[in-house]
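Feature request, filed as a ticket because there's no other form

It would be nice if the structure record came with a short human-readable summary line next to the tokens. Right now we just get the raw output. Example of a typical job, pasted below so the devs can see what we mean:
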Amino acid sequence: MKVKKRTVWMLTLLSLVAVISVYYVKEPNIMPFDGLAIFSDGALDQLTIDEEAGDDAITPVYAQSALFEEMRMESQNKRSQLREQLTTRITTDEMSADEINELYNEMSDLTVRDSTEAMLEMLIRSLGYADALVQTDKGKVDVRVISEEQGKAQANEIIHIVKKQWEDAKSVKVTFQPAS
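Raw output as currently delivered:
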């Protein structure tokens, strides 16, 4: 008897669905989720506030983060305009195949730079910094970090991460900005 692969896959998936269904039916429902309870007054009363920390524990980084966000948006706008220009140049009939490939490579480079900058910012924030801004341009990387601690060790750690994650980084500049 010859069994088709599709039939075997279908039977496997059906048996898996049956097992999962039985598991969820038999599992006791410990606490049902009530999304509206999150916004009730009682839920706000349950929050604990550490009043012993005082005002010294609060570090406002809103102004610098807003500045970083504005710079990110400006960079993204410039890159989207460049992408639009490249797209319109690609759609013209006067371009040769080699020129079109070059334009596609430029568009691909823009996408790689965007994703690399976002990844590096995330990695730098994971080191414990409040916010970071990474800008790349032809092998040069400019890193701005919001931090009260400013030292060569912190800068070297950031430079190491940048060079490890992006091999095109030939020159890395790290600038620390206070969190005020």
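Something like this underneath would help us a lot:
DSSP finds five helices and three strands in the chain.
The CA atoms of residues 124 and 158 lie 7 Å apart.
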